[in-house]
Amino acid sequence: MDIETLNKLEKKALKKSGMDFTRLGVALFFAVAVLTFSFVSNGGVPNNMFLAIAALIGAYMAMNIGANDVANNVGPAVGSRAMTMTMAIIIAAVFEASGALIAGGDVVKTIKKGIIDISAFGGNADPFIWAMMAALLAAALWLNLATALRAPVSTTHSIVGGVMGAGIAAAGFSIVSWSTMGKIAASWVISPVLGGVIAAAFLFSIKKAIVFKKNKIDAAKKYVPIYVAIMAWAFVTYLTLKGLKKVWPSVVEFLNNIPFVSMEVTQKPTFTTALILGAITAIIVYFYIANKIKNKVFDDSNDGVNTLFTIPLIFSAALLSFAHGANDVANAVGPLAAISDAVIHGGVSTKASIPLWVMAVGAIGIALGLMLYGPKLIKTVGAEITELNQIRAFSIAMAAAITVIIASQLGLPVSSTHIAIGGVFGVGFLREYLHITSKETHSVEDDLQIIEDEKATMNAYKAELATLEKKDDKSKADYERIVELYKLIAKEEELLKSTKKHIKKIEKVQYVKRDTVKKIIAAWIITVPAAAIIAGVLFYAIKGIML
Fold this sequence. Notes:
Blueprint: H1 2-41, H2 48-68, H3 71-79, H4 85-103, E1 107-109, H5 125-148, H6 155-171, H7 178-211, H8 216-243, H9 248-256, H10 271-294, H11 302-307, H12 310-345, E2 351-353, H13 356-383, H14 390-410, H15 416-437, H16 444-470, H17 476-508, H18 514-546
Antiparallel strand pairs: 1-2
Helix pairs in contact: 1-2, 1-13, 2-5, 2-12, 2-13, 3-4, 3-13, 3-14, 4-12, 4-13, 5-6, 5-12, 5-18, 6-18, 7-8, 7-14, 7-15, 8-10, 8-12, 8-14, 12-13, 12-14, 14-15, 16-17
GO biological process, one term: phosphate ion transmembrane transport
Pfam families: PHO4
GO molecular function: phosphate transmembrane transporter activity
C-alpha cells in the first residue's frame, strides 16, 4: 500500500514538473521570439540591442500582468462556478488581447502617472533608457514574486514603484513628484474601501429584494431585470470612458450615419455621453431580460435565483477583460514605447507613439501569461478569500465598474486590483455580519443573558438540594425531590455548556480567511517600495555595465 502511494505521488510530481517545464518553455519561446523580431526589424537603428533587450523585458512584464492582474476580472466568476477555469481563460485571453489591440492608446505617457520630472535627465537619452529598463524589469520581477506567493497586487503600482526607484537612482529624490505619490498611497485605502462598500451594498440589496423573500420566483422576475439593467448601464458607461478612447472618433462617425442621430465629433467620450449610451443600453437590456425570464421555470431557492446571474457574470468578465486590456497594456508597453522612442529619435519625450509591434507584444504577452500562469491567482481571488456564488460575484463585478466610474469623475486615484479584491472582502465580511445578526442565530448578548439565567436557576436547585440532603428525617417525597434536583442540575449544566459553545461558534465564524487577507494587504503596502528598491539596484547594475 505504501509503495502504491509512493508511486502515485511520484507520477503526480513528474506530471506537475512536466507541465511546469512546458509552461516555462512556451514563455521562453515567446520572449526569445520578441527579442529576435525586435533585433531584426530595427537592425538599422543605432543601439538597437537596447531596444531588443527592452522588448524582451516588455514581453516578460506583459506575461506577468496576465498571470497576476487578469485574475481580478474572471476570478469571482470562476469561484462562483458561473464559468469553468478553461472558459474563463479563453474569454479573458481573447478580450484582453482585443482590448489592447483595438482600444489601446496610440500614444502613452512615457512616465506612468507623471511621478518623475523627466527634465532632470537633461535630454540625455542613455540614463533615461537605463531607468526605463530598470523600472520595467523591477515591476516584472515583483509581479512574478507576488504571483508565486499567490498575492494579487496592482500592476500600476508596481510600474509606478519601478519608475520612482529608477528615477531616484538616476537623478536623486528631487525628481519625484511626491504629491502624486501621496495620491497613489491614498488609493491603497480608497480603492478597497470603495469596492468593498459598493459590493456589500449590492449584495445586501439583492438579498433584501430577492433572497430573503418567501416567494423568491416572483421577486426574482421583478428585480433581476433591474439589477442586470444597472449592470449594463455601469459596464457600457465604464467601457465607453475607459475602453473606447482610441476608437471614439470612428464610433461617433458610425453613429452619425444612423438616421436621426447627430453627435459632435470629439477626441474622447464625455461622461454625459457615456451615461446616455449606458442608459439606452440599460433600457434595452431590461426589457430583454424581463421578457426572457417571464416564463422561465426555476427553483424557488437560493440556487435557483443564483442561476439567473450566470450569463450576466460571463458578460461582465468579458467586458472587464476588454477594458483592462485597453488600459493596463500601457503598464507593459509604456516604458517600452518610451525606450523605443528614445533609441530611434535619440532624445527624451514626455509622450511616445506606440508602434503596432510594441502593442502586439503587450497584447499577446498578457494573454499568454494568463493562460500559462493565471489559474493560481484566479483560484486565490475566486475561492481562497471567501466562498462565492453568482450573486456575490455579480456584486463584485458591479463594484468594479461603478467604483472606477465614481473615482474617475471625482479625480480619486484607484487601483482596479484593489477594487476587485476589496469587493471580495466586502461580500465576505457582509456574510459574517448577516450570520451573526440573522434571526435564526441568537446574538451573543442574548446568549450571555441565558447563561446568567441558567446559573441563577442552577444555584437555586443546588441550594434546595443542599437543604434537603442536610435534613435528618427525609420523607419519600424528599428522596424523590433529591433525585429530581440532580436531574435538573445535570440538565442545566448541559444547557449551560451548549450555550457557551454556541457563543464560541458565533464568535469564531469567519467567512473571510484572515491569513489570506493579511498576506494580500501586506503585499499591497510593500508593492511600491519593493519595486522601487529593485529598480534602483537594477539601474546601478545597468549603469555599471554600460560605463
